[in-house]
Amino acid sequence: MQWRLWSALVVLCVVSITVFACGGADADDENEGPSALTSEADVTVDVVLRDTMSFEPASITVAPGDVVHVNLDNRGALPHNFSITSLNVDVDVPPGGTATVTFTAPSSPGEHRIVCAVPGHEGAGMVGALVVER
């Protein structure tokens, strides 16, 4: 009789460990796997372009796959530009003007250079970064 009790106890332990190790199905399981590598959320960022040759903020951080809406506000007397060459983003913003650009963040983490493509502005320091991180 003890042999059967011990056997049943061992089987119960093995089954319990297997269930806990593998986990059961729950609502979060839908967000796991390859599709969990991208967030696919909408992110809105306000960026001010200044004649001091700066973007404010200078760095934008998003998750892979985010749909990014950037509201650009040129508060200077000079024309400015917002370009991320690696993502084919290129928007001119006239003095005192505004613009909005929308793009999808890359699916891989990394850093992408933001520049003002108006001649001389990048060289004067009007640069920033789009940081894609999990």
SSE order: HEEEEEEEEE
SS-based class: alpha/beta
**Which fold name fills CATH's third level, the topology of the largest domain?**
Immunoglobulin-like
Largest sheet: 4 strands, mixed
CATH architectural type of the largest domain: Sandwich
Compact description:
This protein folds into 2 domains: 30 residues; 96 residues, Cupredoxins -  blue copper proteins (Immunoglobulin-like, Sandwich), CATH 2.60.40. It is α/β, with parallel strands linked by helices and 134 residues long.
List keywords for this structure.
1 helix, 9 strands, 134 residues, four-stranded mixed β-sheet, Immunoglobulin-like, globular, alpha/beta, three-stranded mixed β-sheet
Task: Report what the structure shows.
It is built from 1 helix and 9 strands. It is of the alpha/beta class and 134 residues long. Strand 5 (80-84) and strand 6 (89-93) form a beta hairpin. The chain folds into 2 domains: 2-31; 37-132, Sandwich (Immunoglobulin-like). The longest helix has 21 residues, at 2-22.
Q: Secondary-structure blueprint of this entry?
A:
Blueprint: H1 2-22, E1 42-50, E2 54-56, E3 59-62, E4 67-74, E5 80-84, E6 89-93, E7 98-104, E8 110-115, E9 127-132
